[in-house]
Every structure is written in C-alpha cells, then in structure tokens.
Specification:
The chain folds into three domains: 105 residues, conserved putative lor/sdh protein from methanococcus maripaludis s2 fold, CATH 2.40.420; 91 residues, Elongation Factor Tu (Ef-tu), domain 3, CATH 2.40.30; 122 residues, no CATH class. The chain contains six helices and 24 strands. A hairpin with an 8-residue loop joins strand 14 and strand 15. The longest helix is centred in the N-terminal third of the chain and has 36 residues.
C-alpha cells in the first residue's frame, strides 16, 4: 500500500510541475509576442540627468563620400610604355660596341654599336647606280625615252625605300648621295633615354635580323603592381591617389595613382591586380623592390552615419535614433560600404534623422533591462 501511495503522490507532483511549466511558457510567449511582431520598435526614455550622466551624443544621417584606405603590398616594375628592345633588320657582324655593360645610362639617339653588313653595302651600291641612271637626259623627244626615265625613277624610289625600311635615316641617304660612297658600317642608336637593363651582344658577334641586342627602360616613372582582395575591389577606381612607403628608404611616403585594374580574379589568392604609376626622382626605386601601398579609396555620395553609432548584436546591426531629447528608438539597419569614419546605411535610417554616437551601449543595456533581454 505504501508503494502504491508513493507512486500516486509522485504522479500528482509531476502533473503539477507540468502545469506550472506550461503556465510559465504561456506567460513568456505572451510577454514576447509584441517583440516578435516587430510593428513597434523598442523605445527607451531617459530623464535629462541620466542623459547627461551617460554622456549621450548624436549626429545627423546624411549624404557624403565614404573614405577608406585599402592597404596592400606592391611590387615595382618598369613602365612597359617606356621599355624598348634594340634590334636590327639586317644581318652582319658587330664591329664595335659603344655601350658595353648592363646598367649604363644612355640618351635617345646615342650610338650603341656599329655593324658591318654586306647586304647593306650592296643595297647602297644599288641605290647609287639607280641615282646615276635616273639623271635626266637632254634634248630628247622620243616618247619611249620618257618611259625609260620614268622606269628609272621608279627603280630609284624602290632602292631608297629599301634603305628606309632597313632604318637608314634620310640624313644618311642624303650623305650617301653627296659622297657617292657606300658606308661599310651601320650605327645603331638608342630609341629612348634610360638604363640598359640587359645587353645580349658582344663585339665580333654575328647577328641576324630580329635578334634583340639591348633592353632599355626609362625608370623615371615606374609601375607598381599590387593585389587587392575581392571584397575591397568595388571601392577602388582608376585615378585614385595612393601612398607608397618603402621601409628601407628615407624620405617618407611617395605619391602614386591607380591607372589600371586588371579584369580577372586570381582564383587561389582571391585577389585582383591593380596597377599604379609613380615618379622615381633620383632613380631611388629599383625594379623588383617591394613597398607598402595605401590606396585612398572614396565612393560617391551615399547615405552614411558615423561608425560608432552602430552596435553589432549577433547577426543584427542596431542603431538608436533620437526621436526627441531623452527618447531613443532602436532600429535594425542594413549596412553597405564601411569607411574609416563613416558607414553606408542601405535600410533602417533616413536622411536627417539623428543617431546616437556616444552612450548608445548604455541605452541598449537599459533597453535590454526593460524588455527582459528580448
């Protein structure tokens, strides 16, 4: 009988506990129902003394550019538009080198080397023969003789054009006409001013047409190739200014400018290459050096609020809006671009509304106390 009575008592106790738990759940659901609907945002009302005590400060939401600094590392390279290979269109032997080592500085038009080419000598002799044959004859009336002269002029123009295609200058052709003697040596000159990055020829070498002899680069302006993460690419634009810091060089930051954004993404590093241009006074910067790059990115006008106005609560971003002094309404917002001082608001805030920038954490604590942490 005692066992049966104990089982009966236990059953009554469990039933009471179940009913009590159900009542608590019902009360909790009833209390939380208004917050679930979300029709009315939570409002916190503080008296003036408390507002002053917690140091509430506010700012207006408005339109302005979102400034941001994109930090990365860049590699210095020669400007490809100021880079040239020196070669020749004829074959022959290198007779003399006027620039004989890598790293030498040359000026545009400066002699680099001279070559002896039998083909060039033959072409000059053909031009001199055509020049003599094209001299007009006197006292001719025969029409066939006129046709012969026209043919000889065509032959002269063809021989001259052949020399020009071999990079013989008009001044050299004029000198050939004056002296009447073929030049045995052809001088190759520098196509631009710069530094010899590579020398691929020696005296006495036999070279063929199209062979690269020198590689020359103007290093007064350089390119910097940097890699930007894909989430930062939307704020980078052509024409934006940048700063370049070389830790091992004195003189502070150098200025650069974004001039090209590559159209492809590296699938491994998840980055996009960005090319910048910069001046190189005194040739202090060398190709293949690395430097710290800060791109000063700026968007167009966007609706923004100060960054400190946003409270991050789990998956939500919360902002408190001042409806009137001492009255603050909680808003859930959707954010866009984030700058150094301001953040873009896509939803939840309108232009001209005043948001809390200081004391919002304490206001949020007060709201949590009043709503029971909902």
């Amino acid at each position: 009988m005692k066992i049966i009575y104990g089982i009966f008592q236990s059953s009554i106790f469990n039933r009471k506990a179940t009913i009590a738990a159900a009542l608590l759940l019902f009360a909790a659901a009833a209390f939380a129902a208004p917050a679930e609907k979300g029709k009315e945002a939570p409002v916190v009302v503080l008296n003036p003394d408390k507002v002053q005590l917690i140091g509430v400060r506010t700012a207006l939401a408005g339109f302005r550019s979102v400034d941001r600094q994109v930090r990365t590392v860049g590699r210095i390279e020669p400007d490809e538009t100021k880079l040239a290979y020196v070669n020749t269109k004829i074959s022959g032997w290198v007779k003399k080198l006027f620039v004989s080592y890598t790293g030498d500085r040359v000026e545009k038009g400066q002699p680099l080397l001279s070559i002896y080419s039998p083909d060039l000598v033959t072409a000059q002799e053909e031009y001199l023969l055509a020049l003599r044959a094209a001299k007009p004859a006197h006292n001719h009336t025969d029409q066939s003789l006129g046709e012969v002269e026209a043919s000889q002029k065509d032959l002269l123009e063809s021989a001259k054009r052949r020399l020009l295609l071999w990079d013989i200058t008009p001044e050299q052709i004029a000198e050939l006409e004056k002296t009447g003697k073929p030049e045995t040596d052809m001088v190759i000159k520098a196509p631009l001013s710069g530094i010899v990055l590579d020398k691929m020829v020696l005296e006495g070498t036999y070279i063929t047409s199209g062979m690269n002899l020198y590689k020359i680069a103007d290093l007064s302006e350089l390119w910097i190739t940097a890699e930007v993460y894909e989430y930062e690419v939307p704020v980078v634009r052509v024409g934006q200014a940048a700063k370049v810091m070389m830790p091992y060089l004195s003189g502070g930051a150098m200025t650069a400018q974004v001039n090209f954004i590559y159209p492809v993404l590296d699938p491994i590093s998840r980055t996009v290459k960005v090319r910048l241009t910069m001046h190189n006074p005194g040739l202090a910067l060398k190709p293949d050096m690395f430097g710290n790059v800060v791109i000063l990115a700026s968007s167009g006008p966007r609706l923004v609020i100060p960054r400190e106005a946003v409270l991050f609560s789990g998956l939500r971003q919360i902002v408190y809006v001042e409806k009137k002094p001492g009255t603050y309404e909680m808003r859930q917002v959707t954010l866009g671009l984030r700058g150094e001082d301001y953040v873009e608001v896509l939803q939840g805030i309108k232009k001209g509304e005043r948001v809390v920038t200081s004391g919002n954490f304490l206001i949020d604590s007060e709201s949590q106390l009043k709503t029971g942490g909902q």
